[in-house]
Amino acid sequence: MREMFARSPSFSALLQGPEHRFALTNPAYQKLIGHRNVIGMSVREAVPEVEGQGFLELLDNVFVSGEPFVGKDVKIVLQRSPDGVEEARYLDFVYQPIKDESGNVTSIFVEGLDITERRTTEQALRELNADLERRVIERAQARGRTWNLSPDLLGALNSKGYFETSNPAWQTILGWSEDEVASMSIFELLHPDDVEHTRAGFELTLVGQPAIRFVNRYRCKDGSHRYISWVGIQEDGYVYCTGRDITVEREAEIELSKAQDALRQAQKMEAIGQLTGGIAHDFNNLLTGIIGSLDLVRRRMAANNRSDIPRLMDAASTAALRAAALTHRLLAFGRRQSLDTRPNDVNRIVIGIEDLLARTLGERIELVCKPSGDLWTAFTDANQLESALLNLAINARDAMPDGGRLTIETANVQLDKAYAALHEDVQPGEYVNISVSDTGIGMPPEVLEKALDPFFTTKPVGEGTGLGLSVIYGFIKQSRGHLRIYSDVGRGTTVKLYFPRALQNAVEIKPVAVETPRGHGETILVVEDDATVRSIISDALQDLGYSVLTASDARFAIPVLQSKAAIDLLISDVILPHVNGRKLAEIARASRPALKVLFVSGYSENAIVRADLVDAGMDMLTKPFALDTLGAKVHAMIKSPAR
Questions:
Q1: CA atoms of 320 and 316, how far apart (whole Å)
Q2: What 3-state DSSP class applies to 210?
Q3: Element (H, E) at 140
Q4: Digit-coded pLDDT (tens) for 287-333
Q5: E strands within 249-364?
Q6: Is the CB of residue 116 less than 8 Å from the CB of residue 200?
Q7: For residue 464, is pLDDT > 50?
Q8: Kind and range of the H or E element at 44?
Q9: Which residues contact 594 (CB under 8 A, 6 or more apart)?
Q10: Which residues, other chains included, contact 99 with Cβ-Cβ below 8 Å and sequence gap of 6+?
């Protein structure tokens, strides 16, 4: 038996254990891998060059599954000589698992043939046959009237991407003679933007997958391009092709698409006009309250009458906070708000605001919460979700003037590809669903169609802004989620919110201290391009006992950061001229790896999501913010352990 094993022309080896250690090899195997002494070594140690070629993964799969693997004409790159020169070999082989009495795999027997030389001989023979076939094709096609008269491009494409034959339509449509077509690869004739997807399609065709209505652009001899729709079928080493000129049809489609885009743009401008009208109305009222209160404060101070000043200051602050709330709602509608997206326990959030929702709904409306017992965690902003649920509860209350029932349910759902195909801007996958259902008056189809439009409301003037649902929709889409509304007149409405599943555990957020703690001379660098905001932050921090350095943008901040000055915290606006805040933080940490960074932002052109912006030792504060909130955040960051 050992003599047969040693003389066998097949290479053989016995690999033991999950690490695939060589226990036995025959001379043919040693010749294959270059006469190495591999006994006792794992495959990874003995033949390191196979890493990344898929063989180790196949061995692991056979060992785990207990199923054999058969490989035919498989390429492997080996270092067969001491000088380390790599050589490609082609193998037919079998991985056969060997099991113990309990059926567990203990070893793998490897057996196969090195077919490299045979394959080289066969390839030379195929090339000879191909040349003969080409000549036969030329003669047969030359005699075909269809070949000469067809208005479509015809030809036989070899495996290297050259048309060995082409009919007269090539010259009629594209201007290239048969000799010119044969002298250029198809990739030389293609529009640059179509090369990669054509290459991928061509490779599929070579392995037997027909190309049907495959469209790309070919260059004409005069330098222009025409759209060609191809049908290609592989047979006997050639891809037989027919291509139809669809330039007129495709250009018409492009023009139609442009017209549709122009229509959508016009509709957007109409919506923007409605939006700006609503914004102007609300902001003018708020600004009147702020400006008027401050003017009255100045007059009282000039007259040395301070009795009304606290009331007027409170009125100005209230109007300013309402303006801040309106900008946040607008940013949510436009998907430009700064989100604190984290893995959250949605059940905890729903249960946490149950009392608030019950008080909001009143005694005539029954609130029923049905949290799922095995709910996944979800990626969302907890505060924004609470606000969304409160808005939905208010809408439901207004839709049930005579009382009713509001039901909030949570569930795990899987949105498949079929569902995603039916709904715009939805990715298939796993989601956490929150359903908010009322037994109210419902919405007719024409109202349901406009429910998410900004400033659309069915409430009387002065009782609704029309931003509620559109704000929720903006928050959901910015969270990479999904929203659906179902409504029947007289039977009620259901709003379904979908948030992407998080595989991590929920992150608990610690409350910020109520009383603002003071600093002890720590140095803070404030980078803010707005002079008023920069001055207010600087003054507030100095009042709290910090030493403050300021810069209007990164050009002035970088020299300070790269100096030897002690800096305990960098506070930077996200949107800065020249270099944005995130890039500035990266530059700062190149020389100060442990530097803590607090970003402040009103809005970002890229719709900031906190998890995408901050790293360890970083945090973010959204404008506008109370100075007490700023002080508490700064103190917490400075006192936190270094990253």
A1: 6
A2: coil
A3: helix 116-142
A4: 676 777 787 788 778 878 877 788 878 777 777 776 666 665 555 44
A5: 342-344
A6: no
A7: no
A8: helix 43-46
A9: 617, 642, 643
A10: 66, 105, 106
